[in-house]
Write a structure and sequence with these properties.
The complex is a heterodimer. By secondary structure, chain A is α/β, with parallel strands linked by helices. Chain A is built from 13 helices and 10 strands. Chain A has a 6-stranded mixed β-sheet, with helices on both faces. A 4-stranded parallel β-sheet of chain A has the order 5-4-3-6, sandwiched between helices. In chain B, the strands form 2 sheets. Chain B has a 6-stranded mixed β-sheet with strand order 1-2-10-7-8-9, with helices on both faces. A 4-stranded parallel β-sheet of chain B has the order 5-4-3-6, with helices on both faces. Chain B starts with 8 loop residues before the first helix and ends with a helix. Classes of the chains: A alpha/beta, B alpha/beta.
């Protein structure tokens, strides 16, 4: 049974924070120094987490909430790469079996790392995986399903990042996070809105996969008609799932769509100016900040992940 | 700083003369032994202009496989300091000790890299002007960074000429020379880093700090030994620039070094007495890493910490997984990522050159 959507309460977030301390790291918030007169952009470096993405927050919290009986049965999830690694790590740490239904076009390094962390990997095409996250089901899977975004405990784990942001940058005016399924932004945004409702929350998507921006324009959850795969493999969904639309509605103030070129340029800028390596999805938020659509700042950009290898990174930002 | 060109004794004498001139200021110089009170005072003075840089525990499959069992690593991410390097601490500390008249006349500096950017930043932050002499070999991104901070940049053909030029600028324009590493106020600036780190991570049992001229290591190690005498301090130098290592062996600062390393920020052509004596008093041992070890550490930091840093910033990591691996078994080790001002293309060239 799928539990009804309910708000991510501050108490849930604080409980998650206590639960995941020790496994999940408190990541640094640093300035992106663009020189005198540049916009005030700060980077929340979630790419420094174990498995190099924010997903370890939600994964650790969700695994910690399992009952003894659920642990014995193991867990499974669906992933484009980062959620699978994080859940595999959290499951291994707890001594639980883990299966990942993985998108077969995900970067080889992400698939290999899930396997190295002890997960059984079942590769499927993107469409099949998206159907599984929409239906909360995949034939042949046993044990507890940890949804990679539509899961209260998973999102509550991500929300702990919002508390850290407010502690480190109380002068924040806007926060930008990438949207894939919507779990990250719902989590971070829930923490921020609970404590500082005037801070604006923006979602960033690539132009090739921007169902949330379309849904906002049309006033309800939509499927993105011209979806294309790209190097931004960790964000940008086929559609906004009804339940995620409901979760994001009270939390998100706007959508910013960026081009693949803007995303590549942001990857290069981060590497040149801050020496920080972001994967495509991780660079959506600074690319969005640089459009000016989120205001003058201070803007906090969640650098959601850094899982990209050197050859790929060089190829993307070169020339 | 970087001196790719070979030094001469005349070069050294000029550098010393400049520093002596700087130390002849009317304000009383602190004693050669830093005190906690002086460090705390410096910290309060520089606080408006520098960042309390983040620390981060390093947890990853690759690093854990490289370390001896039980070793835990904490990174001090000083590369996120203003100007991208720890050198902002020393430059601000030094410049705040100038008289209002001196400060108004501006400062001058010589460097191929991080110190030039830090001096430019400090001058801009304190509302004065900087004239920096950089070598023609300096990375264009570093020259551009200085100019973006409003500094006037003068290009010198080589290190020797660079020092002659900065000396002339100090004399003719009345600018105060801000040395890249030597002197008590610079050391008090870097000492604030050591104090800050132990506050952030009180259970550190050892730290690893890169040595160029020794200004960073001297100041930071002095603070660490004052606060926690049983915390071990290891210095690390490139094999191609082992100036302090040989000074330790000789018992006095060596006055001439042939340098050949990819870590251009760790390559001074000589050691100087103040930094030498601070390091000698507070550093337990110095280890060496070669260029390939530096490149490997850069790759490791790229893959696991998602940082693309210059070679100098990877030196402490190279020592951690290299010469110090067994000696640090089971300890909580602090690794300083001291700063990085290098564009990504240069990073890529370095890292692809692993032989």
């Amino acid at each position: 049974m799928i539990e009804p959507v309910r708000p991510i309460a501050l108490a849930d977030i604080e409980a998650a924070r206590a639960r995941i301390a020790g496994t999940v790291l408190r990541t640094p918030l640093v300035r992106l120094d663009l020189g005198p007169g540049g916009p005030d952009i700060r980077l929340k470096l979630e790419n420094l987490q174990p498995t190099n993405s924010y997903k370890i927050r939600g994964a650790t919290n969700a695994v910690a909430r399992l009952s003894g009986a659920e642990r014995a049965q193991g867990v499974w999830t669906v992933s484009a790469g980062n959620a699978g690694q994080a859940i595999a790590l959290a499951a291994r740490a707890a001594g639980i079996a883990c299966t990942v239904v993985a998108i077969d076009s995900a970067p080889r390094t992400k698939l290999d790392r899930m396997a190295a962390l002890g997960a059984r990997v079942v590769p499927v095409p993107y469409d099949v995986a998206w159907e599984a996250v929409t239906d909360h089901a995949f034939e042949g899977m046993e044990g507890r399903f940890i949804h990679p975004f539509d899961n209260h405990d998973f999102i509550s784990g991500h929300a702990t990042m919002g508390l850290e942001i407010l502690e480190d940058a109380p002068d924040t005016k806007a926060v930008i996070a990438a949207i894939g399924g919507g779990g990250l932004i719902t989590g971070v945004g829930s923490a921020i809105k609970a404590l500082r409702p005037e801070i604006r929350i923006f979602g960033a998507e690539p132009e090739t996969a921007a169902p949330y921006a379309l849904s906002r324009r049309e006033g309800g959850p939509r499927r993105f008609p011209d979806w294309e795969a790209s190097f931004v493999d960790g964000a940008g969904g086929h559609s906004v799932i009804e339940r995620m639309w409901e979760r994001m509605l009270p939390i998100v103030d706007g959508a910013i769509t960026v081009s693949l070129d803007q995303t590549r340029q942001a990857m290069r800028l981060l590497a040149d100016k801050a020496r920080v390596i972001a994967e495509g999805a991780g660079a959506l938020s600074p690319a969005a900040a640089l459009t000016g659509e989120a205001g003058e700042g201070p803007i906090v950009c969640v650098i959601s992940g850094g899982n990209v290898d050197l050859a790929k990174f060089c190829e993307l930002i070169g020339g | 700083m970087c001196w790719r060109d070979r030094s001469s004794t005349g070069f050294k004498a000029r550098a010393k003369g400049l520093e002596r001139g700087a130390m002849d200021q009317p304000a009383p110089a602190p004693s050669p032994v830093l005190s906690l009170a002086e460090i705390e005072q410096t910290r309060a003075m520089i606080a408006p202009y520098v960042v309390r840089t983040p620390v981060h525990d390093w947890r990853g499959r690759e690093i854990e496989a490289l370390l001896a069992p039980g070793t835990r690593v904490n990174l001090k991410l000083e590369l996120f300091q203003q100007s991208g390097t720890f050198k902002a601490r020393g430059a601000i500390s030094k410049m705040l000790r100038l008289t209002p008249e001196e400060r108004a006349r501006g400062i001058c500096a010589v460097s191929a890299g991080n110190h030039a950017i830090a001096a430019a930043y400090a001058a801009d932050a304190l509302g004065t002007t900087a004239k920096v002499v950089m070598m023609g070999s300096a990375n264009p991104a570093r020259v551009a960074a200085c100019k973006a901070l409003g500094a006037e940049v003068v290009i010198a053909p080589d290190g020797k000429t660079a020092f002659e030029m900065v000396e002339a600028i100090a004399r003719d324009e009345g600018r105060s020379f801000v040395h890249p590493f030597e002197g008590p106020y610079t050391a008090l600036g870097t000492a604030t880093l050591g104090m800050e780190w132990l506050e952030q991570v009180p259970d550190l049992e050892a730290v690893i700090i890169a040595i160029g001229g020794g200004g960073l290591c001297g100041g930071a190690s002095a603070a660490i030994k004052l606060l926690k005498p049983d915390c071990q301090v290891f210095g690390v130098e490139p094999t191609g620039s082992d100036t302090m290592y040989r000074s330790f062996a000789q018992g006095s600062p060596i006055d001439h070094a042939e340098v050949l390393t990819i870590a251009d920020s760790l390559a001074p052509p000589f050691a100087l007495p103040y930094s030498f004596s601070l390091c000698r008093a507070n550093v337990d041992d110095i280890v060496l890493v070669d260029d390939d070890q530096l490149r490997s550490a850069m790759g490791l930091l790229f893959r696991e910490m998602k940082l693309a840093v210059e070679p100098a910033a990877a030196a402490a990591t190279a020592a951690l997984v290299g010469p110090l691996r067994d000696r640090l078994a089971g300890k909580k080790v602090g690794v300083l990522v001291c700063g990085s001002n290098m564009d990504f293309d240069t990073f890529e060239r370095h890292i692809r050159a692993v032989s």
